[in-house]
Amino acid sequence: MFEVLVTEQSQVAEARRRASAAATAAGFGETAAGRVALVATELASNLVKHGGGGRLLVDATDHHADLLALDSGAGIADLGRCLADGYSTAGTAGNGLGALQRLAHPFAVVSWPGRGTAMLARVHDQQAVPALPAGSAEVAPGALAGLVVPRPGETACGDAWSHADDAEGRTVFVVDGLGHGMDAARAANEAVAQFQRSRHQPPDEIVHAVHGAIRHTRGAAVGVARIHWASATVSFAGVGNIASTFVPQAPGQPVRRMVSHNGIVGHNARKIQAFDYPCGDGLLVMHSDGIATSWNLATYPGLLQAHPLLVAGVLYRDFARGRDDATAVVVDTRPPRGAVS
Predict the structure, then answer these.
(1) pLDDT tens across 118-130, in order?
(2) C-alpha count within 13 angstroms, C-beta hemisphere, residue 2
(3) Residue 193: pLDDT above 60?
(4) What pTM, to 2 d.p., does this model score?
(5) I need a surface site. Which of 21, 30, 49, 111 has the fewest CB within 10 A?
């Protein structure tokens, strides 16, 4: 995922160009890449006109492109009205957000007066499916998403994440290669490769396997969480500064921050141990230390029900340290359809 800062109108063209190029490089056809360019233009223009500037994050795969527009501006007081064609607060035709709903699926928005706005638009390589009304997108049980953004000035990223599913649960893996740049990226990539080989093992055994596999690299911080659908529990094993937190949907229930031991996987991981935690309906949030741990999702009304990538985007917007690679992975802990429960 890459980031384009958009603080003035002249930067909208750069956002459009880079988003279109990323889609083309991912194998999008000309028509689909054109839709990505249109979405990037609308999102970037909205950042300038309504958000006081912000950032556009873009991630293109061979199936779809995700675009996240993040600003810390005045926010949207009446979201439903703003999403209707013909409504504008900037003297324009007022068709921008309505167009986004037709071009992207999902297209979802969270906003708080005085605290900014986050918009997610996913453009598929195939013809876009009509989005849900009012800028909302139903979040399916078990939905997950993550963002990985390299340190400013770097093209290689030393953070990475992956996951593996089966009928009984889901295993989520987050790694932060020591430092940043190419050497950190090499450690993270080899850790992910080992995770894929060991993905059916328990979390502590996965960390042990990664520890052995990346000894020749500079090492990494690693966190592995295994969600068990039937028992509504999560088992977590971590070494280093990978934060893992369960945030319940039900008000009044405790937020659970999970234990990670000190050390560097691949070098001096002296203690590798998994701990079990209850987790009903809610969100599992895992992130590298490029994002500060001082966040509290309860201070963002409605964010717990939003698309996981919007949650990750808001955490990145408000808590990225700005001097390191940053990764945030968000998982809806409700069992997906067809899971053993």
Answers:
(1) 999 999 997 544 4
(2) 18
(3) yes
(4) 0.92
(5) 30
